[in-house]
Design a protein that fits this description.
Elements: H1 5-30, E1 46-54, E2 63-71, E3 74-80, E4 89-101, E5 103-108, H2 114-122, H3 130-146, E6 149-154, H4 161-170, E7 178-181, H5 205-211, H6 217-230, E8 234-238, H7 255-267, E9 271-278, H8 279-288, E10 292-298, H9 301-310, E11 313-315, H10 336-341, H11 344-351, E12 354-355, H12 371-378, H13 383-389, H14 392-398, E13 415-418, E14 432-437, E15 440-444, E16 447-448
Parallel strand pairs: 1-4, 5-6, 6-7, 8-9, 9-10, 10-11, 11-12
Antiparallel strand pairs: 1-2, 2-3, 4-13, 13-14, 14-15, 15-16
């Protein structure tokens, strides 16, 4: 056969293809030596995780030596054994780690932190602007994510800052957890969430809505609609007063007002969280159909039975509930009478009430959310159930059970890792060494990989 230029061109193309394939296979062999990945997986590339111990479904037994493949923001597959990476996969070697789903916190104030208020007081005090709060939140969101919390509910902010922060994170401008935002806390005049300190009754209706202050069923329904218009993901209202506002622990809203808040929110498929301490007000909120009772430190067995029957969640926020004399980590004892008064969590757990992990972080420093786990275990919850409360249970409460909370094919790739087994030592969750949010690695080998993607944005923004 006579070789023509056309034949030579075909041969050259074929040789080039063979050499390219050989090069890719050679590169794939070197992927067994982990290279620090970018925070963003390249389009079409896959990440292969070798998980030494994998808690794929919290509440079930962990698996040993598993291979997890992530593509984009989704988990592609989970298989037994450590397989070799393919040519288009980057290996993340977590073979010496305990791997589990990203954690979730149901009760966060992402804009607040004690040190911020101290700095403000030292500089002369006065109101902290919404711009300042948003910038503070950008820092606190990164601390939260670095601590392994990939999804949170912000349960009370102003009408602007948290929504701006949520948008920046969703668009990939800033690193941070997925934020479900309640917006302004709905409260009666003079109530726990009334930042006008009782003077809100003299405000114009539009200002009252901005502050989340409402009285009467009609005005409360409007307040809920206002928050929905702002972009709220859930609604939170104060069924009782609160310690930090010196408004006590008793009922604040009438039954008709609570019902109007819940019905208006549920009409738009939004969950409703009720701040409640005392049992009687909590019962009325539960009757109205709230999805969660926040705090619930003074609930009695009747209220807990009601929650169990209706499937209402308890978000216990134990870390900030410690009364004087509480057992500390060194084992100092409390008085028996004092203990009995604050036993709602133990009773709820024993009765099988739904419990979702929540901290009220913002009252203490962000990034320390995992301190809550140790108290839950101190009070009798198993390590396995404590982890489940911050993954499977929170995902269900958030309405995200189909999307996250477990490591299974098709689920969002929110994955963390620690060096110790938290089923044996819950304190291990205070030292998260690896964080993946929506398929992007943001913390590796204990090092946070930065907050801002400096590459030019082409087309749709890359999401964290």
């Amino acid at each position: 056969m006579t070789l023509t230029w056309r034949h030579l061109a075909i041969i050259i193309v074929m040789l080039a293809a063979v050499l390219a394939a050989s090069s890719r296979l050679h590169a794939g062999a070197h992927n067994s030596v982990q290279q620090p990945p970018s925070r963003f997986a390249a389009t079409g590339d896959k990440l292969l995780i070798h998980a030494g111990t994998l808690l794929a479904v919290p509440g079930e037994s962990p698996l040993v030596n598993q291979s997890v493949v992530v593509m984009g923001d989704r988990i592609l597959s989970v298989t037994a054994g450590f397989r070799e990476p393919f040519y288009n996969e980057t290996l993340l070697d977590l073979s010496d780690s305990f791997v589990l789903p990203g954690l979730m916190d149901a009760h966060v104030h992402i804009m607040a932190q004690p040190s911020a208020f101290v700095r403000n007081a030292r500089s002369g005090g006065g109101p902290i602007s919404e711009s300042d709060l948003a910038l503070n939140g950008a820092v606190y969101a990164q601390r939260t994510l670095a601590a392994g919390f990939t999804t949170i509910r912000d349960v009370g902010s102003n009408d602007e800052s948290v929504f701006a922060l949520r948008k920046s994170i969703d668009q990939g401008m800033l690193a941070g957890p997925t934020i479900l935002a309640a917006g302004p806390l709905i409260s009666p005049t003079g109530g726990h969430g009334d930042r006008g300190f009782g003077a809100s009754d003299s405000m114009e209706p539009a200002v009252r809505r901005t502050e989340g202050v409402c009285d009467g069923a009609d005005e409360c329904a409007i307040a809920v609609r206002h928050n929905i218009g702002l972009g709220a993901d859930l609604i939170k209202f104060t069924a009782t007063g609160g310690f930090m506002s010196a408004t006590g622990t008793r009922q604040q809203y009438e039954v008709e007002e609570m019902q109007a808040i819940v019905d208006t929110a549920h009409m738009r498929d939004l969950k409703v969280a009720a701040h409640a301490y005392g049992a009687e007000a909590a019962k009325l909120a539960i009757d109205a159909g709230v999805d969660s009772i926040e705090h619930g430190w003074m609930l009695d067995k009747s209220a807990l039975r009601q929650m169990k029957k209706q499937g209402t969640y308890l978000v216990p926020t134990l870390l900030i509930s410690r009364p004087a004399g509480w057992t500390n980590m060194a084992g100092t004892a409390r008085g028996a009478a004092e203990r009995d008064e604050y036993s709602s969590f133990e009773q709820a757990y024993a009765m099988g009430v739904n419990i979702a992990f929540g901290t009220d972080v913002g009252i203490f420093d962000h990034g320390q959310n995992a301190r809550e786990f140790a108290i839950m275990v101190e009070l009798g919850m198993s390590e396995a159930d404590a982890i489940r409360s911050a993954t499977v249970a929170t995902a269900e409460l958030f309405g995200l059970g189909d999307d996250r909370g477990v490591i299974k094919p098709g689920k969002r790739a929110d994955i963390i890792a620690v060096h110790e087994n938290p089923l044996e030592n819950i304190e291990a969750l205070k030292n998260v060494s690896f964080v993946m949010k929506s398929g992007a690695v943001v913390k590796q080998n204990g090092d946070y990989l930065g907050s801002i993607d400096t590459r030019p944005v082409l087309g749709s923004p890359v999401k964290f």
